[in-house]
Design goal:
361 residues, mainly beta, twelve-stranded antiparallel beta barrel, five-stranded mixed beta sheet, 55% strand
């Protein structure tokens, strides 16, 4: 039977004062270089609460399940993933690594100004490719929603291919104040996702069909890396068919799961180390009017780096891959189209970062 692949990408809230309706935008997603740890929590006495405006959600008592280690998520550039995987997803500009070494699983995604989509998943054991991409997130106003259909194929190296298709509806149904073990967050937004997927494979002497349905509640906050709390309900029904025999049906029933990020007790928002052997300096004026001129020095020949320009609110305004020579490199970036304000330029190899603060006038 095919193993389901679930990679929370977002394998991504108390106050008496009324809050303005926050806009759901891509700044709720992690950035390249973010490292977070997700923990599974005991589901007893955990409720997703009600939809609506100015809600108060208190998840401050969440604790990791005893004996269950957290899962570390590294958000990296596709160029810093194994080339045999990255080459299968040329449209990806953002990737997730779960695990280390030969056991690592990589998710390849496309992060755009107004939506976020999964293109596929790869590991030593499994390749999953979406012929019709899975849109996970779009910019929304309160009570807004979107629906999407997706299709994929999964090859687990058994010689049999699973064919999957599904649909998803995401609704931004509530906002308010969120309290978690990581702290108190104003302007938190809750997303309700309802999805279903059917996976099937023909083994020649028989076939199997797996029907999976989800109802998921995710809490996100602008400029925080991913989903801070997730409550989801899953049901899996599998049918195994052999000619001349009765169909074997297995029904998991509905099971509930809770995941969360806790950076107070376990250092979840661990920042990557500083990129060594790389220095960034201004080669021109700062503040900048039309062109940002940089001098980037590298001690040794380096693998491609990912460059990000972000504004003070954490929104990514530009990304590009850089292949630089050992020694001094001069780089000029047109920035005349950007608004006045503070910005950051970050270089990363997917593991460590080097950041320069600059001003646009």
């Amino acid at each position: 039977m095919k193993k389901s692949l679930f990679l929370p990408l977002f394998a991504l809230f108390f106050s008496a004062a009324l809050l303005a309706q926050p806009q759901l935008q891509m700044n709720v997603l992690p950035n390249i270089g973010d490292v977070v740890t997700f923990y599974e929590a005991d589901t007893n006495d955990v409720s997703q609460g009600s939809a609506g405006a100015n809600q108060n959600w208190d998840f401050s008592d969440l604790e990791p399940l005893a004996g269950v280690a957290g899962t570390l998520y590294h958000y990296i550039a596709p160029s810093n993933t194994p080339s045999q995987y990255a080459s299968q997803f040329p449209g990806a500009n953002f990737a997730l690594r779960v695990g280390e070494g030969d056991t690592a699983v990589y998710s390849y995604t496309k992060k755009e100004a107004n939506q976020f989509s999964i293109l596929g998943i790869a590991s030593e054991d499994v390749i999953q490719e979406y012929s019709n991409t899975d849109i996970q997130l779009k910019n929304l106003s309160y009570n807004g929603s979107f629906s999407d259909d997706f299709t994929n194929t999964t090859d687990a190296g058994t010689g049999f291919i699973f064919y999957g298709s599904g649909s998803r509806t995401i609704t931004y149904d509530a906002y308010g104040t969120l309290i978690t073990p990581a702290g108190t967050f104003q302007n938190a937004m809750r997303l309700k996702g309802i999805s279903s997927q059917v996976d099937s494979a023909d083994f020649g002497v028989g076939s199997t069909i797996i029907r999976t349905s989800f109802t998921v509640y995710d809490w996100v906050v602008p400029n925080q890396p991913g989903v801070l709390v997730s409550v989801y309900y899953t049901r899996i029904i599998s049918e195994t068919r052999f000619p001349g025999l009765d169909t074997i049906i297995e029904d998991s029933g509905v099971f509930k799961s809770v995941n969360f990020i806790d950076n107070l007790s376990v250092g979840t928002f661990d920042r990557p180390e500083e990129l060594t052997g790389v220095n960034i300096a201004f080669a021109g004026a700062n503040p900048v009017s039309d062109e940002l001129s940089l001098r980037i020095s590298i001690e040794n020949a380096n693998e491609p780096l990912q460059m990000l320009l972000t504004d003070a609110g954490g929104r990514v305004v530009e990304t590009r891959s850089l292949t630089l020579n050992a020694g001094e490199n001069l780089l000029s970036l047109p920035v005349g189209h950007l608004g006045t304000g503070a910005y950051f330029l970050t270089l990363t190899d997917g593991k460590a970062i080097r950041t320069l603060h600059w001003q646009k006038h």
